[in-house]
Amino acid sequence: MMKLGWQPRKWLEKKSKRGNRGYPMGTIAYYGPDNRRASKAAVSIMPALHADPVDLRRWFAETGDLRTDETVIAEIAAFLRENEVKSVVMADGILGCPHEEGIDYPVGEACPECSYWKGRNRWTGKLESS
Fold first, then answer.
1. Residue 57: CA atoms inside 13 Å, Cβ hemisphere, count?
2. CA 9, CA 17: separation in Å to the nearest integer?
3. How far is C-alpha 7 from the chain's CA centre?
4. Can you list the residues of the chain whose pLDDT is less than 50?
5. What is the pTM of this model?
6. For residues 36 and 42, is the Cβ–Cβ distance under 8 A?
C-alpha cells in the first residue's frame, strides 16, 4: 500500500470535525465581497479560554476563492501545526466583508466596496429590517 504525504486540507477537515480537544485552539474565518468568494482568510491562535489571540495571520486574494486555494490551505495548516493546536474551529461559509470597520471605512457605516453585506447579518446571511 502506497503511503501518501501530508495532506493539509484533509488534516484541517479532520481537526475541525473532532470538535474542542483543548487549547491552544486555532480559529479560521473567511471573508469576502459576497457570500460566494472568500477574498480574505483570518487565522488566529487562542492559547486559552477567554484569552486574547497570541497570533493572527491573514491571507488575501484579488481573484479566486481562498477556500479552494491549495497553497493557502497548506500555509494555514502549517501555521496551525507550528503552533501545536489541539483544536481547530472553522466557520461555515463567509462571515462578511473583508474590509475592517474603523480602518477601511468609518465605524458605524456600511463598507462602500461590499454592497452585498449592507444590512445583512454576517452569521445568517439574511437581510435584516432596519
1. 13
2. 12
3. 19
4. none
5. 0.89
6. no
